[in-house]
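quick one, 323 residues, struct below
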Amino acid sequence: MKAPYGKIAKKTGLWLGLLLISALAFDRILYRALFPLYDRRSTLSGMNDELDGFIIGSSQTRWAVDGGVISQRTKSRFAVFAPPGANLELRSAMLRDYVERFADHPPSYIVLEGHPFSFHPTRYPDDAYKTLLGYRPRGILREYLSQRYGDDPLFQGTKVFHSLALNSEFYFLASAVVDLPIRAIRPVSELPQEPDLPMETRIAQWRAYYAELKDRGAVDPRFVSAYADLMQVISRTGIPIIVLDLPIYRLDPQMEKDLSVGRRILQKDLPPNVHYVRFEADRVENDPTYFYDASHLNAKGRAWLSEKLADEITRTLAQSKSK
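---
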């Protein structure tokens, strides 16, 4: 008697189909459950929302700008998009992505982090995008991530199993035991506790860190080109743009000279709808009590800068309406 191979193959196919459907269903449930915690690191889910304004930057922006204060003082829907380590190319991609997807309902204003180190060849890592793969299933940065990942097997796998995207470079799930409880409990806007050390000791540590940064005035032509291209895109939108020069503590007399290279680029050939701001530089940048470290503001610095930026946004909107 012949074995019923046809029936066995049919049943096997049905079981494999059910297994695949179950795996996909579990994957979608897992992705939806973990995404809110994943999103706490960069909060880019807001790029799917219609906003009145937003700021794009790196961790310096996340530490420096309180989105709640900006929203309240400007009476506008405002968000902070600031992935840690985001270099100028990634910031440009984020701005393009939002403006293109909301071309019919553009924001009333945009703030762009203009840190003078933005053009330095090594100050920002080139792989910060690898922690943003979890946003691709939400339709955020799809084109940019596709270009950066190319034929990478992990990237291709995330097109089927979305939860894999949350574990890009094993950052998310591999660190979950430590990270997730902290992210679930501590508010995103809360800054770390400052070290209980004498200010002289802290400043010495800041100097040691920047001593390792070779040629502080160096400029990467790739980032200069990215900034110039971004200004062209911004010019075509007509949206009022504020280029915000974030404070950095002046560790030595040479620091201001080194950073002047980047600042000149930030201010060069700006379109009519773009203006550059730098608040109370001589006072704040020489006062270490505003800083957590040389590049990041503390709670005092954040409160000061958020208030200043909110006032600047209000002025910018008033001028835009009067034209």
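The chain has twelve helices and five strands.
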